[in-house]
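Two entries, shown back to back:
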Amino acid sequence: MPLNKEKRKKYLIEYNTSPNCKEYMREYRLKSRFGINQEEYNKLFEEQNGVCAICGKEEKDISSWTNKPKFLCVDHDHKTGKIRGLLCGRCNTSIGKFEDDVNLLQNAIEYINKNSTKSH
């Protein structure tokens, strides 16, 4: 039988404030979405020196849960599932909007180059 609204709210508060909840959920999401564990994520993070594989910057978006910078996103090929690296939220969203289409990305580069003011 489903919990009523108040009991569900109480349960979620207790569950989400337990000491190991965030770590467990993070491990679960990494494993279920990408097939890796926290140790494998940490290895990628270290190999990239803690920065985005595209822009070379640290993640700047702040988590509402922890008030700390969010984790870098696990970027993967949507056809094969192969992990390509870790990206900041902005770069991850940007390439996602281009649907990993190299031709669209190349067209965007050409467009920017053609229409940008050259500075010397």
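entry 2 starts here
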Amino acid sequence: MDDELIWLNEYINKEKEFNIFYNDKVSFFNAIFIYIKKNEIIQIKKEKINLDDVCFEKDKLNNLINKYKKNNKLAKILKYNFNVKENEIKNYVKNEKNTKIMKFYDKIEDIYWEKTIPLFSSLNSLYFIFVNNKSKTKKIKIFNKNKTRKHKFSNTDLKISKSIYDKIENKLYI
């Protein structure tokens, strides 16, 4: 009976070496803050965020955004969750387009993280895309009334060009 227990313990110890290849709960993610001005990336900041649960709550997300937004407006949030199953790695390498590891958020909400293979856990990231929010105003003098008016130029629409998304996507795979 002792031989059976020894064999079982040896097998369990050998199997522990391969735990990094089996999906596990996400314990952290990288928060990456991308600042854009005139369709050019002007700055990128990064912070490691530890998770207690599979959910990053809306309040924590709000606090994180307020900490990094400066004088910019949040345009999008992109979650990159490497949630490929251990038996699907081979298919992922051959054709990565079939997996849904990226998700865009247009509003602030709770963000849930799916299990990840620990070997790839450093890929899990939350990208915050900020657009310069300095409004351009022009004072127009109206002589017959002696009043000034502010005329706002079009800086309210926060559309980001495809080239910016391509630059961000290229940075994901570097």
